[in-house]
Amino acid sequence: MTQPPHRDKAISPLKKWHSRLGLTAAIFVLALALTGFLLNHVADWRLDDRLISSPLVLEWYGISQPHQMRSFAVAEQFISKVGEEVFLNAREVAHCSGELRGAVALLSGKMLVIACENELFLLDQNHEMIERLGISQGLPSPLRRIGIHNTELVLAIGSDSHPDVMGADVDNLLWTPLSGDAGAVLWSVSVPTPPALADLLGKHFVGEGISVERLLLDIHSGRIVGGWGVYMVDLMAILFVVLAVTGCLLWYRQGRQQG
Q: The pTM is what?
């Protein structure tokens, strides 16, 4: 006995939507199943210790090595700044929030002075911090350049084209206008960072990479695509419920037809 045509028409749209939603959900089901399986064996396979250092993955997480890194060469050393950290070669020696402005050697190399935008760092010959000078010690700021004039430390504030050059007595914390020919100052000038050092500092900045466990967790929770990814996973959960309900309706209606 044939079924009334209106029943087939009633079921057809439901089947179409059920199929479309099922195809959409299949991708997420596979991703959730695979990541869930792997997360269940994190300890067995030590996925928390395995690191992903792929530039593509790190770039996705907003972690990338600084481009066109530059340094200041002084006393056969390179002074560089990566993030908030100041390095002497590959050794971290200070933290500063402003731009790195230069570095000079005093007292025949027995003292190293590093200038950031609002701070001066004085290091001894062993590259240990002697003193840190800032605005509270009367330091003129923001600093633009640092250099040597007649074997004395000098600072420049203001623009490069019209500098207001100040002489610095770091022992007595005095900052006075420089006497003599200010044009004879030997300024500290930035140079390209040697490739090997730039690579080493870049790896220090980005770390060793992202653990496989973290990547799996972010994929599983949807956070891999940002904050709204969590809501996308919630939407998928609702979609699974809809599929379950429509599947039961289709099964029930088909059973009635066959009956």
A: 0.58
